[in-house]
Amino acid sequence: MKIFQQLLQLRERKRGFHLITSEVVNALPQIHELKTGICQVFIQHTSASLAINENADPTVRQDFEMFFSKAVPENDPDYLHDDEGPDDMPAHLKAALLGSSVTIPIRNGRLALGMWQGIYLCEHRNYGGSRMLVITAWGE
């Protein structure tokens, strides 16, 4: 069994859903050494999240942002946690709904994503800053 791990600092992105598959793959080239395994990508933040979804049509990512903005609105007077602005608590809720990690099988040295699947950075803050990922791959 081999285990590889790498930190990846993503550049700051605007609020929305951004494809980061190639950045993840490029950050851990040792994936190519694994015939069979698992890759976990974990984000070290509570106001951004990760997801796997459509990688071809950018309108899907726009619709994700529209849906989550409607489902978890800003400026709700019931929020107690608002020290960092109106997007703060909604960002935490969205991150809790989507999750902090994705797990992808490795097959023949590649991420076994479907043809139309990609890894999203889901940035829920207007000014979230750079984001840190921990990428871990293990297998044989």
Model description:
- The chain has a single domain (2-139), classed as Jelly Rolls, CATH 2.60.120.
- 23% of the residues lie in helices and 38% in strands.
- The protein is built from three helices and eight strands; from the N terminus they run ββαββααββββ.
- It has helices at 21-27, 58-71, 88-98; strands at residues 2-10, 16-19, 36-43, 48-54, 101-107, 110-111, 117-123, 131-139.
- Strand 5 (101-107) and strand 6 (110-111) form a beta hairpin.
- The protein is elongated.
- 26% of the residues are buried.
Briefly characterize the structure.
The protein is α+β, with helices and mostly antiparallel strands and 140 residues long. It has helices spanning 21-27, 58-71, 88-98; strands spanning 2-10, 16-19, 36-43, 48-54, 101-107, 110-111, 117-123, 131-139. The longest helix has 14 residues, at 58-71.
